[in-house]
Amino acid sequence: MAITRAQLDAAAEALALALKFDRPADAVLHDFFRARRALGAGDREFVAESVYGVLRRKRSLESLAPDATPRRLVLIYLIKINNLSIRELSSLLTAEERAWAAEAKSVDPESPSLAVRAELPDWIAERLARALPEAEILAAAAAPTPHSPVGIRIRGRPAIQRHPLFESGALEVQDEGSQLLGYLVAPRRGDLVVDFCAGAGGKSLMLGALMHSRGRIYAFDVSAARLARLKPRLARSGLSNLYAQPIRNESDPRVKRLAGKIDRVLVDAPCSGLGTLRRNPDLKWRQSPGSVAELTKKQGSILRAAARLVKPGGRLVYATCSLLAEENEEIVAAFLGEQPQFRQLDCSEILRNARIDLDTGMFFRLFPHLHGTDGFFAAALERT
Question: Which residues pair with residue 53 across a beta bridge?
Fold first, then answer.
């Protein structure tokens, strides 16, 4: 792989912006490339792969080269992870950098910590070690997904958005875990359903498909911009029972008027997103114990507001793409402690009734290293 000086400089510059961790890495790269239209496709590919490569391996790279600059992080990534020789990069390096690279390449840390091996900040590794005592937390052509009855998994990186089946609405891009959440909600054809934190509407579309476009689904979100991304997806899908409505907050009048009327409510709560690290490696550096504590307050508030919509005999599904107990089991336990009119359902039993053989116990839990999906959590609750 012949790397140019311009590519290396661009990768270092883009990484420096991403390492601020003030917004998602994909947004950083989008703006970076938009401001540098002279970069060719090959240049952009190198920059993106280098930035994401460093973000994924940042912890172990920094153990080899403490206090490294963004440029040196790119260099050590190319040398240690991409297996480029210092000789191949020699023309791009100063004499000082060649000496530094040789020294960094020779470093072989003894007994690296779990956090370093798992490429995580210490605080995340410590909490996941408590949640997964028997696991190492290491994320260890088309084919059917192993658990979702409606999913296919495609190898490589095809331009799926330009595929005729995508353009016709015959398929959507969605993680298998998100599909399985739809089977936990288990909407019936004539139900009234609320997707309380709908975002761009992927799970709403799944629910609409399970209902065969009958009944009614309200897709609520406080972000009109996120909901706007549902509009073209909804048009492709052909669903006629899905209604997207932006709300000001969980106490919006449009929410209150549905109190006690809804058969199924899905709360895909805003969370740390730590179950999506395989796709968003920068997230682990943009979260902190403090940000998680703020999220748990919001999660409890949203869950309580959503619960008011559920009619007797109705179902409430609380879900996150986090692996942390304080965003998951602890939120549910606190809710049940103050809401005796709700009882917990067995998620594995619900899935068995849908002919899905996946036993994760009373709670629904998916892990990247075990299930090949994003990390997911869900609890199914029934209003008695």
Answer: none
pTM score above 0.70: yes
Q: At what angle do helices 5-18 and 41-64 cross, to 10 degrees?
A: 60
Please give the full DSSP string across 186-203, using - where no structure is assigned: ---TT-EEEETT-TTSHH
Q: Do the Cβ atoms of 301 and 250 come closer than 8 Å?
A: yes
pLDDT band, residue 132 (cuts 50/70/90): low
The helix/strand/coil state of 264 is strand
- pLDDT per residue as tens digits for the range 64-80: 888 899 999 999 999 98
Share of residues in the chain with pLDDT > 70 (%): 97
Question: Is the CB of residue 260 less than 8 Å from the CB of residue 233?
Answer: no
CA dihedral 180, 325, 62, 5 (to 10 degrees): 30
Q: Which of 378, 317, 26 is nearest to 186 (CA)?
A: 317
Residues 75 and 203 reside in one and the same domain: no
Amino acid at 172: E
Integer CA distances (angstroms), 346 to 177, 188, 267, 350, 378, in order: 17, 19, 17, 6, 11
pLDDT tens figures, 159-175: 778 777 788 888 888 89
- Angle among Cα 135, 137, 267 to the nearest 5 degrees reads 105
The CATH code of the domain that includes 219 is: 3.40.50.150
Q: Is 80 helix (H, G, I), strand (E, B) or coil?
A: helix
Among residues 112, 140, 161, the one where a domain terminates is: 112
Give residue 82's domain range. Answer: 5-112
Distance from C-alpha of 21 to C-alpha of 281, rounded to nearest angstrom: 11
Domain boundary among 63, 92, 112: 112
Torsion of Cα atoms, 369 then 315 then 326 then 349, to 10°:
-40
Beta bridge partners of 310: 262
Number of H helices, E strands in the chain: 19, 10
Residue 321: active-site member:
yes
- Domain count for the chain, please give it: 2
